[in-house]
Model the fold of this input.
Amino acid sequence: MRSLGLLAGTGAVILRFLQTVGEVLVLLWQAVRESRAAPRNVDKILAQMAEIGNATLPIASLTAVFIGGVLALQSGFQLAKLGAEENLGGLVGLSMVKELGPVMTSLLMAGRVGSAMAAEIAAMSVYEEIDALRTLDIDPVRYLVMPRVLASLLALPVLTIYVDVLGWIGGALVGTVNPQINVSFRTFFDNLRQFMEVRDILDGLVKAMVFGVTVAIVCCYVGLQTRGGPREVGRSVTRAVVLSFICIFIFDYVITRLLI
Amino acid sequence: MQEGQGRGPTRGVAIRIVGLSKAFGDVEVLRDLTLEVQPGETFVIIGPSGCGKTVLLKQILGLLTPDAGRILIDGAPVAAPGQPKPYRIGMVFQSGALFSSLTVGENVGLWLKEHRVADDGVIERIVTEKLALVGLADKKHLFPSELSGGMRKRVAIARALATDPDLILYDEPTAELDPVMTDHIAEAIVDLKRRFRITSVVVTHDLNMGCYVADRMGMLHEGRLVEVGTPEQIRRSANPVVRAFITTQTKGMGGA
Done:
């Protein structure tokens, strides 16, 4: 009997998961369809992009410099032991561009902007504002979701390039100031240029775009699903951020595998 | 005299609800509800909180679909929001449901702007005009959070009016308001009724306000309309459910 209950429970969880995935995909499809209305909603898209930039830039700058620096510190010492410290630029540069840049930027964006998207839309759901939009014959997907998805799609690659560059600078600085590593700015960037191909940068930007859209759509979905009151708004924010993180990690693996 | 007559020309719609039922899980909210509202009439549905009044309005709006039964507006089934329809419905939500990120003026003008009904100058003029109708023309640039509860409700009314509706629905327009504000809102509803002669449905648990604004009213109890009549007929009703509701209210009013 107990094993049957367990089976039913597992089944229910799987069904719920599949239903959520399906609903998110439907919302994404609706947002894509509503993108026709993008030219008329440029003001909303730009406002969302500004919001993403404003909220993410300061913390992303700080994180980028330090991640680049620590990466250079960790690998610089190992490389110096092998006498291969001149390869520091390529190592830090590629790590930032292909992996750390897009992943870190989208995680930060999920925490800073995704949470705000989920909170705003969840509050709108709870306080009947979404119903009010519908009664005014304004499609919430066109009015709320589409501008956020497009803004994330456009803003994340730009932010990622910025983070990549700051990460390189952080790495180069650490390489220069540490006598044990002792890699000059010039050596760092020469090596970086030698290893880096346009393809590597594009791979990172593809990730950034996918992650950006994922965070926006997941956070909008969770917000729109919210029912109840202030407590549920809080729960939705946590749920949206956690779901975004999980999706970013899974998609990171999948995209990396596909692009190798 | 038949209700709905002698009111002169109206552009309001007729509502016919037949055998409407709606349940959430095991809870039956509406049971085989039947109701007719004449064009241009102000129909008030009274009943205690949580008796399904809001659910009824949401079904008239097409936000919820009935489990059974039909809602016909001017003879045609209710269309889902966003679908083309020959009439427009304005809704005043219980909470006001103003968009908190937009100013009062932007709230009122949102429908006009999103549907590109007119250019910005004209929209501005319409917004001022609708806000003036509810006495708030000078509050255009404030945000909803800067307004009192009563003002928010009045902005919600102005927002509904900006769509130039053929039917306006009020969900508990005076809930959570003090007696003075209740008076203001009731006056606003009566004023709009006289001015525009559109069909209105008001749901409320406030018997006094309901009687004041209604042409006819109905008492909703356990998912059905147990009594329909003029305010006077409702007050004099011998139906025990109606009597119980009225007596409770009167006791409350008398402070006994």
